[in-house]
């Protein structure tokens, strides 16, 4: 039997041997002959306990690597990640890094990384770079770093970018909303609403569409109308906004609606003045609230000497009679795609402008020339399997006319892609239309606009009509509004 002393000595020897092996293994991972410029090298350097490369040396080395455009973007960003871990005074690295932001050849990802690094460390002098980066700040971390920096260093240079970012953040949290309001106030020295109104009236403020979207979605219509009416216009935009606020009691809700105001205002008094008279008349008689999408219909009606004036009750009667003649089945309640589409049940949901739209479209559907043209279009569409037919309906020469617009792209039988010209012309049109002609609709519940068409109407603030091929060689017409009201207008043949 081995003595107890000998066993203890053997255990001690084993421990010494194990420690030697660990030491040898650790020594196998040699430190590089240069300051660490990857996170892995930096962590290894820290574990080694060596003082060969002090923090200042490591910081300067990596700052120069971030600056070095001969390296790849990934290599430069890796050095930036090392800088994030080195504990040194910022004055040693900030000047070099700031130069990176001024160089045009700097890759965007490196520029964003450096800007976030400097902003998080409260580096001064970044106002112009922050303003330039904010519109494309798709990273929540970068966006937060830039906005926090601006809160500490408010600069009017950044106001346009902040307003654009604010308008684009949908949906927006209460926390973000409050941060934007406070930030705009700090930058401008005014309340956020006054700052945006002032921006609309400032020549070099290039976020007018964003500003009007923010204002109209957060302030009540009447108070905002009064504020805009009180402006002393210094820009064309402010002049147009004031005109429509005072003459039509209307403020646009989106940048597209603002564009429509500007375009239609160029028409001058020949269309504006008669339209204003009719809108005021409708307001008194029917409590009508003007919308810019109605301008086409209103202005055409107001200047059409051959068009007989009809009351709302007369319009309802005329539209109902036209639908009855075209409807195949007589039902009290008609549903399509889960929506009520019966006209008689929805008259309270339709404005006087919608009534006139329905009246004009109904008249158009009863014209043999229009029916033949739609039938030819449907046949051609069925033969063309790569696109959908669509276009605009305009009030011309006393009647509604459907005008085809070729699609911008061919993306299949179930999608119509509008051209830029179509979208521009839609600013002054009665409504848009699209054809579901690719196959006969066997299931009548699927007739009419789908979610794509309803979303298009809401996005572009325009009413629409869907023509659908149904059994028996017939076509169905269904009218719909941006608010989601859908009205079946019946079916027809040549």
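Sequence proposed for the structure above (494 residues):
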């Amino acid at each position: 039997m081995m003595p107890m002393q000998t066993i203890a000595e053997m255990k001690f020897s084993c421990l010494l041997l194990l420690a030697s092996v660990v030491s040898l293994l650790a020594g196998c991972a040699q430190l590089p002959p240069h300051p660490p410029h990857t996170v892995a090298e930096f962590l290894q350097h820290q574990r080694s306990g060596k003082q060969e490369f002090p923090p200042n040396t490591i910081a300067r080395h990596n700052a120069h690597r971030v600056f070095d455009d001969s390296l790849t973007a990934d290599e430069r960003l890796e050095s930036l990640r090392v800088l994030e871990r080195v504990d040194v005074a910022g004055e040693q690295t900030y000047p070099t890094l700031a130069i990176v932001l001024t160089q045009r050849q700097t890759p965007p990802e490196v520029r964003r990384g450096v800007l976030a690094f400097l902003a998080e460390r409260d580096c001064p002098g970044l106002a112009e770079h922050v303003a330039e980066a904010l519109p494309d700040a798709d990273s929540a971390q970068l966006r937060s770093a830039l906005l926090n920096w601006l809160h500490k260093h408010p600069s009017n240079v950044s106001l346009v970018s902040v307003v654009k970012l604010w308008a684009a953040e949908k949906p927006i949290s209460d926390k973000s909303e409050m941060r934007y309001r406070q930030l705009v106030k700090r930058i401008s020295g005014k309340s956020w609403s006054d700052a945006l109104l002032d921006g609309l009236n400032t020549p070099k403020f290039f976020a007018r569409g964003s500003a009007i979207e923010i204002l109209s979605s957060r302030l009540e219509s009447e108070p905002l109308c009064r504020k805009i009416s009180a402006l002393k216009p210094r820009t064309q935009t402010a002049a147009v906004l004031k005109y429509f606020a005072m003459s039509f009691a209307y403020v646009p809700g989106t940048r597209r609606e603002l564009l429509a105001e500007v375009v239609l205002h160029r028409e001058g008094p020949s269309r504006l003045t008669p339209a204003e008279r009719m809108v005021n008349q409708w307001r008194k008689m029917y409590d009508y609230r003007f919308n810019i999408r109605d301008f086409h219909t209103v202005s055409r009606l107001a200047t059409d000497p051959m068009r007989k004036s009809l009351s709302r009750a007369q319009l309802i009667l005329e539209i109902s009679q036209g639908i009855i003649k075209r409807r195949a089945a007589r039902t009290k309640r008609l549903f399509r795609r889960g929506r009520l589409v019966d006209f008689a049940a929805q008259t309270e949901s339709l404005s006087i402008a919608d009534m006139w739209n329905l009246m004009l479209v109904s008249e158009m559907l009863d014209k043999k020339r229009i029916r033949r043209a739609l039938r030819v279009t449907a046949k051609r569409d069925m033969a063309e399997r790569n696109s959908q037919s669509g276009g605009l309906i305009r009030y011309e020469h006393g009647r509604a006319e459907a005008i085809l617009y070729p699609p911008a792209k061919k993306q299949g039988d179930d999608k119509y892609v509008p051209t830029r010209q179509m979208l521009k012309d839609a600013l002054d049109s009665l409504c848009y239309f699209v054809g579901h002609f690719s196959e006969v609709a066997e299931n009548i519940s699927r007739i009419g606009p789908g979610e794509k068409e309803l979303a298009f109407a809401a996005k572009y603030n325009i009413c629409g009509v869907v023509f659908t091929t149904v059994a028996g060689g017939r076509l169905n017409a269904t009218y719909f509004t941006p608010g989601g009201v859908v009205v079946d207008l019946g079916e027809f043949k040549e």
